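Quick one, T. Sequence first:
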Amino acid sequence: MSADARARTAALREAFATRVVVADGAMGTMLQAQEPTLEDFEQLEGCNEILNITRPDIVRSVHEEYFAAGVDCVETNTFGANHAALGEYDIAHRVHELSEAGARIARESADAFAARDGRTRWVLGSIGPGTKLPTLGHAPFTVLRDAYQQNAEGLLAGGADALIVETTQDLLQTKASVLGARRALDALGHDLPLIVSVTVETTGTMLLGSEIGAALTALEPLGIDMIGLNCATGPAEMSEHLRYLARHARIQLSCMPNAGLPVLGKDGAHYPLGAPELADAQENFVRDYGLSLVGGCCGTTPEHLRQVADRVRGLTPPARRPHPEPAAASLYQSVAFRQDTAYMAIGERTNANG
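C-alpha cells:
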C-alpha cells in the first residue's frame, strides 16, 4: 500500500469510530437511466460491470452525483463481478479485470472531489452475492471462494479503501466471500476494513432461513470489522434485527435499506419511501443503535442520500455496551451456551436443504 492509501485507511477507521460515515445509494437504476446501448454492453445486455470498460463516463457520472450530494464514500460498480454472475455471460475469466476497472473509476472520482475541498472521500469495493447458493449445491464452495479472491484482488488493485461483502443471502456464500476477501488482503499485504451486509427478507430471515443471530454467530469470528443489513426491505422492517445486533455484536454496525417495500403499479414497481422518511429512519437508527455507516439500496437516489447526509452530519453515535453471548449456530439459528440442569435434545431429519 502507498503512503496515501495507508493514510486514507487510517482516516476511514477513525471516521467509523468517531462519527457517522455516509455511503451512496442505488447504482443499477442510475446506470440504466442513461440508456446504455447493446454495443455498450458488448452484446451482454444487463451486465453492468462491462460498462466499467466500455462506458466509464456513465459509471463515473453516478459516483459524481452521489459525491455532489454529500456522501463520504461510494461503492464500486462491481456487484456482479463474481464467478456466478459473470459465468452466466460466459465471461467468468474477466472477474479481476472488471473489478479493477470499477474500483479505479470510483477512486478517480473520489480523489477529484477530495482535491476540490480537501475532504477525504472513500471507495467501498462491492462484493456481491452472485446467483449461486452453495448451501443448495449450486456451485462448489472452493470455486466461489477463489473467484471472490480474484474479485477482491481486482478491487484492491483499483484503489478500494474497504471491502463490503453485501446483499448476502446464504451464510455459506457469505463465508466464501469473506474468506476470499481475507485471502486477497493477505496476499497483497493490505489491511483494510472488511464489512459484511446481510439481507433479511420480510419473512424475518435470510433467504435460506437464517435468522440474524445465526448470521452474527457465524460471521463475527471470521474477523470482520463491521456487520449490518441492506436490501430486501425498507428501514421499518430492519429495526428489530438492528436492535439484536446493537445488543450482541462486538463490532461496528451499518444499515443500507431500500426506499421502502416496492409497490406494483400500472407503470411497474416503484419504491414509496421519500428522502425525508429515509433520513428520519437513519437518524433514529444512529441514535438508537449506534450505527457507524449508513447509506441506501434499491430505490434510493442522490436526493435520498443528500438528506441522510444532512441529517446525520455532526452526529456522534452513542457508545454501545454489547452483551455478546457465546453460542453455536446452525444454518437457521443461534443457540447460546448456557449451563442448566436440563438436557438439550437435538433432532435431525433429511430436508430440502440437504
